[in-house]
């Protein structure tokens, strides 16, 4: 017998009767108005109808269909347009039943400026507004720092900010350790510096062989002129280059290629991406897309590619471990996005197969590590449930901590854990105002009230357990704050430090119990509490230091003679805040109305003297 689909109040027949057969996207909503699934279709009527056919309904579809209270459609001209719109909407709403890519940040590049006589090379992330060349993208900041460090050893061009470069009067430490030729003080001419820049460009473009040939010619020419010291310098560059190219060169690859491997197990998916640009391996990046059910790896690769690439620079080829069902459509849409042909390859041989196998191995290893961590955290949640006597296994924990210096610049932190570990996107800080300095009770009350007031406004999910770093007083204030908001379904637990404040000797304080709970030292539930408490402490201290540093520089600016409130406000607006002022050079500060060179010099020295200390 075919499975019976659960009944719901949504009038399927009436909806399907008038549904168009054109391409577009469809959004499925539950009875609370939340989007639970977004899909795209070449024929909307055929695709949406398939969800309500008993013969083809999977277990996942049955669970999803049972929650549908409404469906909205958006018609597009082509299936390609529908794919683009689907990806944008999934990334924005992250529906429960979609495969969602969590990592959505911009990736960094190496930037080489072209607007200076002595160009700067540096890390860049964000919009490409500056004039110059961009190399990448790199999988992370670490990969770029490693590349810049290598470049400094071979072609020592400057990496310092313009504000520092424009105000140097003597060579810096980088010159002393032979990592920069000190163009800031004229120790190298434009022609010699330009040669190092050209060599750097060749290296970053993957033309290492051509670069070595050029350096060999220069070495031989220098030796012929009896310039042995200069020839030895070229020889050292050649040796360093050969060593670097042996480590990073990908044999058989000359262009831009990404290798994508997927592995799945126990309801967890892992995607590993290897980045190859100009024949050089720039590194690899691991992703764990959110899935609610077991999926075939090909389906995950199909969902991953558009979500990841449609707002990024696309290489000429993607080599995949599992062939997506709609690879032709993906290649067509990616080609429009990239303005060049994009190939998606599955059956590869030779060196390309070796790299694909390496990516698959890395994906499987990363997946096993993730599962191990996930199981360990789950066990800690089970232990916490047992120790606290909860009737159900907790899903979400929140922990508050307070940080200040003798009552000044008080900052409260709120960190969030779920059964997979820290949920850093849900972390929040609160600058505490209007209380007596050093009153931790009032600070906890204000922070908890502000946090849970937002919860009542629907801004975030309620925790099952609210952990407070402190004793009975702090717990009582948290209880008062929740009572004022008429919230009574959150368990409050105080985490009081034990004798001599030693880790492992904490006491747990509950609202309705006179005596603290003793947890056996080493219990995995206690380890979970220590982890979240320490994370809240770290997050609070970091926020406090930032606030204190900002206030210190703000007050220091107020002490500069001739820099009154009006000029301070103009500076803050012109440079977008204290950080912008601190990074500006004397010339930039002088360009602001009312700021003389003498005053600009004093402002500059304020920030850079503090940085030296």
Describe the structure.
By secondary structure, this protein is α+β, with helices and mostly antiparallel strands. The chain folds into five domains: about 10-95, GIY-YIG endonuclease; about 110-245, no CATH class; about 255-370, Nucleotidyltransferase, domain 5, CATH 3.30.420.340; about 395-550, UvrC, RNAse H endonuclease domain (Nucleotidyltransferase, domain 5, 2-Layer Sandwich); about 565-610, DNA polymerase, domain 1, CATH 1.10.150.20. About 45% of the residues lie in helices and about 20% in strands. The strands form four sheets. Strands 12, 13, 14, 15, 16, 17, 18 and 19 form an eight-stranded mixed β-sheet that branches. A hairpin with a 6-residue loop joins strand 18 and strand 19 (about 515-520). Helix 9 packs antiparallel against helix 10, helix 13 crosses helix 16 and helix 14 (about 440-455) runs parallel beside helix 15 (about 470-485). The longest helix is centred in the middle third of the chain and has 39 residues, at about 350-390.
How would a textbook summarize the main sheet?
A: 8 strands, mixed
> What number of structural domains do the residues give?
5
Helix proportion range:
40-55%
Number of strand elements: 19
* Rg, Cα atoms, Å: 30 Å
Could you say which structural class the secondary elements and strand pairing correspond to?
Answer: alpha+beta
Oligomeric state? single chain
Average pLDDT, rounded to a whole number, is 82
CATH class of the largest domain: Alpha Beta
Q: Low-confidence spans: pLDDT under 50, at least 5 residues?
A: 1-7, 248-252
What overall geometry do the principal axes of the alpha carbons give? globular
Distance between the termini: 77 Å
% residues in beta strands: 15-25%
Q: Counting H and I runs of at least 4 residues, what is the number of helices?
A: 20
CATH fold name of the largest domain: Nucleotidyltransferase, domain 5
CATH superfamily of the largest domain: UvrC, RNAse H endonuclease domain
């Amino acid at each position: 017998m075919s499975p019976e689909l659960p009944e719901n109040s949504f009038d399927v027949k009436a909806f399907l009767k008038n549904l168009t057969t054109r391409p577009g996207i469809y959004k499925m909503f539950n009875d609370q108005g939340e989007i639970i699934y977004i899909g795209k279709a070449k024929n909307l009527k055929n695709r949406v109808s398939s969800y309500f056919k008993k013969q083809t309904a999977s277990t996942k579809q049955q669970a999803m269909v049972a929650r549908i209270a409404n469906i909205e459609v958006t018609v597009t001209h082509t299936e390609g347009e529908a794919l683009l719109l689907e990806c944008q909407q999934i990334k924005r709403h992250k529906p429960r039943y979609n495969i969602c890519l969590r990592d959505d940040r911009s990736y960094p590049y190496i930037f080489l400026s072209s607007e200076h006589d002595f160009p700067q090379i540096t890390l860049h992330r964000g919009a490409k507004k500056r004039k110059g060349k961009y190399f990448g993208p790199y999988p992370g900041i670490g990969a770029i720092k490693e590349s810049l460090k290598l470049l400094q050893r071979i072609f020592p061009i400057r990496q310092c900010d313009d504000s520092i470069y424009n105000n140097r009067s003597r060579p810096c430490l980088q010159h002393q350790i032979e990592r920069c030729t000190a163009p800031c003080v004229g120790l190298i001419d434009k022609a010699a510096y330009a040669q190092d820049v050209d060599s750097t460009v060749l290296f970053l473009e993957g033309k290492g062989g051509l670069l070595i040939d050029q350096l060999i010619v220069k070495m031989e020419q220098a030796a012929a002129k009896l310039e042995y010291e200069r020839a030895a310098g070229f020889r050292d560059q050649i040796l360093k280059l050969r060593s670097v190219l042996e480590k990073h060169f990908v044999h058989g690859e000359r262009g831009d290629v990404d290798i994508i491997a997927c592995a799945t197990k126990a309801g967890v998916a892992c995607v590993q991406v290897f980045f190859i640009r100009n024949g050089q391996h720039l590194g690899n990046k691991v992703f764990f897309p959110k899935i609610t059910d077991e999926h075939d790896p090909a389906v995950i690769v199909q969902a991953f590619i558009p979500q990841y690439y449609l707002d990024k620079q696309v290489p000429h080829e993607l080599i995949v471990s599992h062939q997506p069902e709609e690879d032709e459509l993906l290649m067509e849409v990616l080609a429009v996005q990239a303005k060049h042909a994009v190939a998606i390859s599955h059956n590869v041989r030779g060196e390309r197969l070796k790299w694909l196998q390496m990516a698959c191995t890395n994906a499987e290893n990363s997946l096993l590590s993730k599962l191990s961590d996930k199981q360990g955290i789950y066990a800690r949640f089970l232990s916490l449930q047992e120790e606290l006597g909860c009737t159900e296994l907790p899903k979400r924990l929140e922990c508050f901590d307070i940080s200040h210096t003798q009552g000044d610049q008080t900052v409260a932190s709120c960190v969030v854990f779920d059964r997979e570990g820290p949920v850093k996107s849900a972390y929040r800080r609160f600058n505490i105002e209007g209380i007596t300095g050093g009153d931790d009770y009032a600070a906890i009350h204000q922070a908890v009230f502000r946090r849970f007031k937002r919860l009542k406004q629907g801004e975030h999910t309620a925790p099952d357990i609210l952990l407070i770093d402190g004793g009975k007083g702090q717990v009582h204030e948290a209880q008062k704050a929740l009572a004022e908001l008429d919230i009574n379904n959150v368990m409050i637990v105080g985490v009081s430090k034990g004798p001599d404040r030693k880790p492992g000797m904490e006491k747990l304080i509950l609202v309705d119990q006179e005596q603290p709970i003793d947890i056996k030292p080493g219990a995995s539930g206690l380890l979970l509490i220590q982890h979240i408490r320490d994370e809240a402490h770290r997050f609070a201290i970091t926020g406090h230091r930032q606030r204190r540093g900002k206030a210190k520089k703000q007050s220091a600016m107020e002490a500069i003679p001739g820099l009154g409130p009006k000029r301070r406000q103009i500076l803050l607006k012109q440079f977008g805040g204290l950080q912008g002022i601190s990074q500006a050079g004397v010339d930039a500060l002088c360009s602001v109305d009312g700021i003389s060179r003498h005053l600009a010099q004093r402002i500059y020295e304020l920030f850079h003297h503090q940085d030296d200390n």
